[in-house]
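re the bet — no i am not wrong, look at it urself. input seq straight from the record:
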Amino acid sequence: MREFAFTDTDFKVISERVYQACGIVLGPHKREMVYSRLARRIRTNELTSFAAYLDYLDTHSGAEFSHFINAITTNLTSFFRENHHFKHVSDTIIPALLESNKTSKRVRIWSAGCSTGEEPYSIAMTLVGRFPASWDVKILATDLDSNVLAKAQQGIYEPVTITGLSPAQLKRFFLKSTDGNAYRVKPQLQQMISFKRLNLLEKWPMKGPFDVIFCRNVLIYFDKKTKGNLFKGYHRMLAHDGHLFIGHSETMGKEHSEFKNLGKTMYKKMNSE
């Protein structure tokens, strides 16, 4: 027997609110996940049912709504996840930018859906030392979830989360705690990254252009229409010949001819003549 009453209507209302707020689609297979995550909020607020929680959400829409969205959004990431993307940046994109951007000496990369920071820090590690000191190289890292953004900004990771990093990378880019139970990202990397909260469905305040956009394992939560709108937005935000990376389980339909498929979930912006 469940701890809290959770009806079909409750799930329907929650799904609608999540979709309206951030475009995430919660199918029936997400019902148990929704229950387990929001049950924590019900306990925290000392309520007795999901119906009572939804009423509470109506009257405490500010801070509680942020907790509500944070509880639903999924954050699973790791350093250098889908490493072929970072290899393409290192082997192909950086040499091209050194030539194409030599006048502006400016490089901008956006990590959209940065979660707890492993992705933007991996990008920063890939970029460090590859551009002359006079260049302006910056990474924008955004996420809907304010909790994971706070963790990302701290840049502190447990040993279990830094698997996949080589001893040389750990020595160069991290400071190990005296007890060995934590690794802190060095300021050299943190200074390259600006962390900002952003709902991808709301107006984007930045102007771009970005040379590279990472939007990986985010699109899977959106319906086809929303994905299409995001692809158009990314196309507008990308510089001439800019690149877009999406997640390993995500696809871009053939109708999006504004991008050239490079294979392995890597795309290049096509420009109309």
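see?? Residues 8-72 form a domain with the Chemotaxis Receptor Methyltransferase Cher; domain 1 fold (CATH 1.10.155.10). told u. also The mean pLDDT is 91. so pay up
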